[in-house]
Design a protein that fits this description.
The chain contains 14 helices and 14 strands. The chain is an alpha/beta fold and 400 residues long. The protein has two domains: 228 residues, D-Maltodextrin-Binding Protein, domain 2; 157 residues, Periplasmic binding protein-like II (D-Maltodextrin-Binding Protein, domain 2, 3-Layer(aba) Sandwich). Strand 5 and strand 6 form a beta hairpin. 54% of the residues are buried.
C-alpha cells in the first residue's frame, strides 16, 4: 500500500529537505567509534531527579507535533500531562541552524542529523547521555546504537530517533533498462543530459565518494565521510563532470515531485517517502537501493552540555522513542522508526516493510551522514581528512 499522506502531513519533511553528574553509559552495543575525535571531558548525568516543569527543544519540522499543525497529530500533549514538562520547540530548517542555536545555551536538546552531531560533540555543546536513564533505549535497533555519528569511542552522545536511505529514483518509461547502479547519475548521466537531479547539499559529496569506493578501489576509500585530499579531489571532479548533466539540484521535495511528474527530471537521488508521494500523485517512478549501497541519515536526540532542564529532556528522550510515539512520528514524517517494537504500533501495517525498518541487511549497505572532520573516522592516523568546511567550499564551486 502506498503512503496516503495529506499535503499538510507531507510538509513536515520540507524543512529537513532544505538542507541541510558522572554516571555509567552503555558501551556494549555494536562496534566502538574510532573517530580520533577528542571532545571535552564531559560526563553523563548519573540519575534523574524532580522534573523542572519545561523543556526547550530544537527539532526538525514534524518531530514535535502538539496538534497545532493538525489536530489529529499530537504526541506532545500526553507527554506534558504525564511528566509535567511543558514542551517549547524551535523548528530549525538546517543543520547549521541547529548548531548555532545550541551554542546559545537556550536549549536543552536537539534532534541532530549526522552532518551536525560531531560538530556539537567536538565543540562541547552536547554532552554524553546515560542510556540507562532511557528505558526504551533497550529496544532501539542495534544497528543504530554506538555509531560514528552518535558516539565517540564507545560513549553514546544521543538517542537514535529514526532513519532513512538516499535512494535512486527514475522514470520507468524514460529510463530503461531499470537502473541498479549510481552510474545512472554519474558515468552514464549524459544519456539523460539536463534531466538528472541531485540533492543540494555539501554532504552529497559523500554520494560521489561512495560510487568511487565501488568503482575506483585504487583510491582506497573505506568511508565516504573520511576522505583524504586525493580522495576528496576525485569526488569533487566526479561531481563537476556530473554538473554538466544536471537539470536542477533539489532541496524542496515538492519541486522534485513536480519535476518527475512533468518529465523535467527522470533520474536522481530521493527518499522513500518522496518516491511514495510522487507515485501517489501519478508520477511513473520507482526508487531503488543501488548495488553500490547508498548514503542515508539517522537523526539523534542530543542533550545540551548546559541544559537547564535535563530531567525533562531525559523524559522526552524516553517518550519520543517509546513504541507508540515512535511509530506515530515515523508514519507522519516518513521514515523507519528507531524502536523495534514500533512496528507493531503503526496504523499502516506495511509501514515498516516499506521503509525496511527491520531489515538490518538493507541498512548495512547504507552509510549514514556523518560530519567530516580532520581526524579520519575510518581509523587512519597517518593522514588528515578533509573537514566539512572545505566540503561546503567545494560544493559552491561545483555548482558554479
Amino acid at each position: 500500500m502506498r503512503l496516503n499522506r495529506s499535503l499538510k502531513a507531507a510538509a513536515a519533511i520540507g524543512a529537513l529537505l532544505l538542507v541541510t553528574a558522572c554516571g555509567s553509559t552503555d558501551s556494549d552495543d555494536s562496534s566502538s567509534s574510532s573517530s580520533g575525535l577528542n571532545p571535552p571531558d564531559l560526563k553523563a548525568q548519573s540519575k534523574l531527579g524532580k522534573t523542572e516543569g519545561e523543556v526547550n527543544l530544537i527539532a526538525w519540522a514534524g518531530y514535535v507535533e502538539d496538534g497545532s499543525n493538525d489536530p489529529k497529530v499530537d504526541w506532545v500533549s500526553d507527554f506534558e500531562k504525564q511528566t509535567g514538562c511543558q514542551v517549547n520547540t524551535k523548528t530549525a530548517a538546517t543543520s547549521d541552524e541547529m548548531v548555532s542555536l545550541m551554542k546559545t545555551g537556550d536549549y536543552d536538546a536537539v534532534s541532530a542529523s549526522g552532518d551536525a552531531s560531531l560538530r556539537l560533540i567536538a565543540s562541547g555543546d552536547a554532552a554524553p547521555v546515560n542510556t540507562k536513564l532511557v528505558p526504551n533505549y533497550a529496544d532501539v535497533f542495534k544497528g543504530l546504537k554506538n555509531q560514528d555519528w552518535n558516539s565517540v569511542d564507545g560513549v553514546p552522545y544521543g538517542i537514535p530517533h529514526g532513519r532513512g536511505a538516499n535512494l535512486l529514483m527514475y522514470n520507468t518509461e524514460q529510463v530503461k533498462p531499470a537502473p541498479d547502479s549510481w552510474s545512472a547519475v554519474f558515468d552514464k548521466a549524459s544519456a539523460h543530459k539536463g534531466k538528472v537531479t541531485a540533492y543540494d547539499s555539501p554532504i552529497y559529496l559523500a554520494d560521489a565518494a561512495l560510487y568511487l569506493m565501488a568503482t575506483q578501489p585504487d583510491l582506497g576509500i573505506k568511508n565516504p565521510y573520511a576522505l583524504d585530499q586525493k580522495q576528496f579531489d576525485a569526488a569533487v571532479e566526479l561531481l563537476k563532470q556530473q554538473n554538466a548533466n544536471i537539470g536542477e539540484y533539489w532541496s524542496d521535495y515538492l519541486k522534485e515531485i513536480s519535476a518527475f511528474k512533468s518529465g523535467d527530471s527522470v533520474v536522481g537521488t530521493t527518499w522513500q517517502v518522496i518516491a511514495n508521494l510522487a507515485q501517489d500523485e501519478g508520477a511513473k517512478v520507482e526508487a531503488v537501493l543501488p548495488k553500490e549501497g547508498a548514503t542515508g541519515w539517522s537523526d539523534t536526540w542530543m542533550i545540551a552540555a548546559k541544559a537547564k532542564h535535563p530531567d525533562c529532556a531525559y523524559k522526552w528522550f524516553d517518550w519520543i522513542i517509546s513504541p507508540e510515539v515512535n511509530a506515530q512520528v515515523a508514519e507522519y514524517f516518513g521514515e523507519a522508526p528507531s524502536n523495534a517494537k514500533s512496528c507493531d504500533e503503526t496504523a499502516d501495517k506495511n509501514h515498516c516493510a516499506t521503509f525496511h525498518a527491520t531489515d538490518e541487511a538493507y541498512w548495512k549497505n547504507v552509510h549514514y551522514w556523518t560530519t567530516p572532520i580532520e581526524q579520519c573516522i575510518d581509523g587512519r592516523t597517518d593522514v588528515k581528512c578533509v573537514p566539512y568546511a572545505k566540503w561546503v567550499q567545494a560544493w559552491n564551486e561545483i555548482k558554479g
